[in-house]
């Protein structure tokens, strides 16, 4: 009996030693550096850390992210990431409720980091800030860096640009700029659209989405901006601002643009998709929509015209790691993995997004690589004012409705560009004083 007891004791000891040894091999195989389980006893090392990742999808990017999570979990068996999809129309509200209720997710995809910066961890405390920021385009800094601190990370990028009806342009014998070296001036652009209207079988030359982002694309090209550098006042009431509103009026007066979009509620996507229009000033995300829905003509992307300068408007989505989750380090580890070059290339190429990474500016896509590179070039040549104006949701929100309503009134001839901008400036400046007080 004593011998049997001794043998059993030795077996138990051997098993314990084996368990301790296996914990070291598990941690060494981890990808992304998930910290849980890399020290301590064997039972602690295999404790599974669970991270909720709140998410919304515009297309297939949720499926792509889930595949990335699956790969990460396979390499990090002590990490479990639960992707929670929420419809976008209620997303920000649900995230705010989770935060205020003391149950924030570990990670969240967001459009405006600034809305959640106070609830998000400061990544500077976990990473080398300068090398981390150097991975991404400088034009995106105002969207995720606040008071000099990194409060989130860009995961995909969008840009505004010109999508055109290639069939109509070819029928009219009009060539579009083939490189940044032969971009149209504003007058050349307007002349080209008129010629396609006359000879290309389209009713209109251009549709512009009824959004401040698309209007401001023209504003930045004219050398203007919406807000002062300190975000305390609006500076849209300038010579550049007046020129931009006048351009909008001219495009409608000369029936290059239909009145039904900016004065009515007609969908510009539908007008372009049905072949009524030569060009669409739109966001890069329309690439997938038009790929899937246009069958009656060929289309492509060309360069925006140059006014005083070149500019698009950057946008995109970001990921934040939230405070008070007890898995902050694990969340940062996953973020670093998620935005690494190889993984971000997979995410952006399969989801059809531009990458925010500097080293992926010329990456190949399964569809429309040349068009995506034009959008990327527009982004690289954008005014820094564009990112600053739109990087702060609280301030940019103040300009949205007054700008849209004011431009529509000018288009209809109800008020001059200068009078409209005078009125808008007075209203927005008063609201900025209240916001900043």
Task: Give an overview in words.
With 437 residues, the protein is an alpha/beta fold. The protein has two domains: 48-158 and 315-380, Periplasmic binding protein-like II (D-Maltodextrin-Binding Protein, domain 2); 160-311 and 392-436, Periplasmic binding protein-like II (D-Maltodextrin-Binding Protein, domain 2). The chain contains 19 helices and eleven strands. It has helices at 2-28, 42-45, 61-75, 91-100, 129-133, 141-144, 166-172, 186-199, 212-221, 239-253, 259-262, 268-273, 286-293, 328-338, 341-351, 369-380, 384-390, 393-411, 417-436; strands spanning 49-55, 79-85, 107-110, 145-146, 149-150, 153-158, 160-165, 204-208, 277-283, 299-302, 315-321. The strands form three sheets. It has a five-stranded mixed sheet. Strands 8-9-7-10 form a four-stranded mixed sheet. Helix 3 (61-75) runs antiparallel to helix 15 (341-351), helix 7 (166-172) crosses helix 8 and helix 9 (212-221) crosses helix 10 (239-253). The longest helix has 27 residues, at 2-28. The protein starts with a helix and ends with a helix. The relative contact order is 0.15. Residues 1-44 have low confidence and may be disordered.
């Amino acid at each position: 009996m004593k011998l049997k007891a001794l043998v059993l004791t030795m077996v138990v000891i051997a098993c314990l030693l084996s368990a301790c040894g296996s914990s070291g091999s598990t941690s060494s195989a981890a990808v992304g550096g998930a910290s849980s389980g890399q020290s301590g006893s064997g039972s602690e090392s295999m404790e599974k850390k669970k991270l909720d990742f709140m998410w919304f999808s515009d297309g297939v990017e949720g499926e792509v992210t889930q595949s990335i999570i699956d790969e990460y979990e396979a390499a990090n068996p002590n990490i479990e990431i639960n992707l929670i999809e929420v419809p976008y129309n209620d997303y920000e509200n649900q995230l705010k409720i989770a935060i205020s209720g003391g149950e924030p997710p570990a990670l969240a995809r967001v459009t405006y980091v600034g809305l959640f910066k106070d609830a998000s961890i400061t990544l500077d405390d976990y990473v080398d800030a300068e090398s981390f920021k150097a991975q991404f385009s400088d034009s995106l800094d105002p969207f995720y860096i606040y008071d000099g601190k990194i409060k989130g990370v860009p995961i995909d990028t969008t840009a505004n640009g010109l999508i055109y009806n290639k069939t109509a342009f070819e029928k009219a014998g009009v060539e579009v700029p083939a490189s940044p070296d032969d971009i149209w001036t504003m007058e050349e652009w307007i002349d080209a659209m008129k010629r396609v209207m006359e000879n290309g079988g389209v009713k209109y030359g251009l549709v512009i989405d009824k959004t401040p982002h698309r209007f401001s694309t023209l504003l930045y090209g004219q050398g203007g901006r919406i807000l002062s550098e300190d975000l305390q006042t609006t500076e849209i009431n300038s010579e550049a601002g007046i020129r931009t509103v006048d351009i909008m009026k001219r495009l409608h007066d000369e029936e290059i643009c239909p009145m039904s979009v900016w004065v009515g509620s007609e969908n510009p996507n539908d007008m372009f998709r049905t072949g009524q229009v030569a060009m669409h000033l739109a966001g890069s995300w329309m690439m997938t929509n038009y790929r899937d829905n246009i069958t009656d003509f060929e289309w492509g992307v060309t360069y925006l015209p140059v006014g005083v300068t070149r500019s698009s408007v950057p946008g995109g989505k970001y990921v934040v790691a939230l405070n008070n989750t007890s898995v902050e380090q694990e969340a940062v580890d996953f973020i670093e993995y998620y935005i690494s070059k190889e993984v971000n290339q997979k995410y952006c190429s399969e989801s059809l997004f531009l990458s925010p990474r500097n080293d992926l500016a010329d990456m190949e896509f399964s569809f429309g690589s040349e068009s995506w590179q034009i959008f990327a070039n527009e982004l690289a040549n954008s005014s820094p004012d564009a990112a600053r104006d739109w990087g702060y949701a609280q301030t940019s929100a103040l300009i949205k409705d007054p700008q849209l309503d004011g431009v529509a009134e000018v288009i209809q001839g109800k008020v001059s560009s200068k009078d409209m901008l005078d009125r808008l400036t007075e209203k927005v400046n008063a609201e900025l004083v209240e916001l900043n007080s």
